[in-house]
């Protein structure tokens, strides 16, 4: 007579175990589905876009849609770079003179590291980030067409001549470990083809300077004034044979050889800024702000191939990791323009509000702020 209750308890236990197994299986399937969905979303990689009046927009490159926003926990995000493994995003934030180190998986700000006044460009090489600054920024609009920028060579205003610093941040230690002294208003940063030097543009004194990465020493200075003022963008060719620098107030870009000797100038539209080769090194792309175009040049002859009409204040751009499309951030259009890299035509506009400034992708791709990694 005592067996019946015992059997009932066993039956109840078995039923409960079955239910638990079923629920667990459903949960596991849900997790698997979520993982599969996430993998599907990330199949094309991501683009990260800073907005000067907001944070970072994350674009799914498979759908060309903004899928989330990162709060950088500071004001004035501009330059940015992604680590080689794609796990961290480094964003220069102007108002607090720092960089925000962001976990790309969670969007969490892991750390803020002070780097110096008016941080702008971010370039990453291995475990180190290099951040340019503009302590003596004078800003202001470019001169009217045909007019020269007024600069008094005898001006005794020391503030305009404060040397900028390239902050060198150890991303493993999470701290600034040293500085490299550049010119006033250091702007663009590029690594030399052999990886031994930093090549930087200094817009306030119209120079391009070359610095030894190991000890920060100045190895060469190229003066741009006779060609054009305000050097901004800087890019090395994929084969390392040439360097290009845009001259915003000269409406041209300057070509240097592998030893940083002047080769020639190439005329562009009004106020060129971001510049890059494609990955194959066959074409040069230049974002011309006032011209409202992305201009395309033959990398061998320097003949202009096409003007691609774009938006307002388009400064920086990046290819997608597969090299098939170009994403151009247009600040005063509140948009990222998507351009077919073969047809050289705009195919879409992605709404990104609050003055989009810079853009990079992961996996890494060629662009005005980054370089494709090849193995």
Report on the structure:
With 375 residues, the chain is mainly β. It has one domain (46-139, 161-362): YVTN repeat-like/Quinoprotein amine dehydrogenase (Methylamine Dehydrogenase, Chain H). It is 10% helix and 46% strand. It has a four-stranded antiparallel beta sheet with strand order 3-2-1-28, with no helix packed on it. A four-stranded antiparallel beta sheet has the order 4-5-6-7, with no helix packed on it. The longest helix has 39 residues, at 3-41.
What are the salient characteristics of this protein?
single chain; 375 residues; mainly beta; Methylamine Dehydrogenase, Chain H; four-stranded antiparallel beta sheet; 1 helix; 28 strands; 10% helix; globular; disordered N terminus
């Amino acid at each position: 007579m005592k067996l019946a209750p015992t059997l009932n308890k066993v039956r109840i236990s078995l039923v409960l175990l079955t239910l638990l197994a079923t629920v667990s299986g459903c949960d596991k399937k849900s997790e698997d589905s979520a993982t599969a969905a996430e993998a599907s979303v990330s199949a094309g990689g991501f683009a990260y876009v800073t907005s000067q009046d907001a944070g970072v927009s994350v674009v799914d490159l498979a759908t060309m849609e903004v899928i989330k926003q990162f709060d950088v926990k500071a004001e004035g995000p501009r330059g940015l770079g992604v680590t080689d493994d794609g796990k961290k995003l480094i964003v220069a934030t102007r108002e607090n003179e720092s960089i925000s180190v962001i976990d790309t998986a969670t969007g969490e700000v892991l750390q803020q590291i002070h780097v110096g006044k008016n941080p702008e460009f971010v370039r990453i090489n291995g475990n180190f980030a290099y951040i340019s600054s503009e302590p003596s920024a004078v800003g202001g609009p470019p001169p009217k067409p045909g007019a020269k920028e007024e600069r008094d060579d005898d001006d005794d205003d020391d503030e305009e001549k404060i040397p900028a610093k390239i902050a060198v941040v150890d991303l493993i230690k999470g701290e600034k470990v040293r500085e490299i002294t550049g010119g006033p208003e250091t702007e663009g940063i590029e690594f030399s083809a052999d990886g031994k030097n930093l090549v930087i543009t200094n817009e306030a004194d119209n120079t391009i300077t070359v610095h030894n990465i190991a000890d920060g020493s100045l190895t060469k200075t190229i003066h741009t004034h006779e060609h054009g003022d305000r050097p901004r963008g800087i890019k090395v060719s994929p084969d390392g044979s040439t360097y290009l620098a845009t001259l915003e107030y000269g409406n041209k870009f300057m070509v240097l050889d592998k030893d940083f000797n002047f080769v020639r100038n190439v005329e562009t539209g009004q106020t060129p800024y971001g510049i890059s080769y494609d990955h194959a090194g066959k074409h040069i792309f230049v974002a011309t702000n006032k011209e409202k175009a992305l201009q395309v040049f033959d990398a061998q002859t320097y003949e202009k191939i096409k003007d691609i009409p774009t938006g307002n204040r388009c400064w920086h751009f990046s290819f997608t990791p597969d090299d098939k499309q170009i994403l151009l951030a247009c600040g005063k259009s509140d948009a990222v323009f998507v351009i077919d890299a073969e047809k050289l035509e705009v195919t879409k506009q992605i709404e990104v509000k609050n003055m989009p400034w810079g853009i990079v992708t992961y996996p890494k791709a060629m662009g005005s702020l980054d370089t494709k990694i090849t193995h």
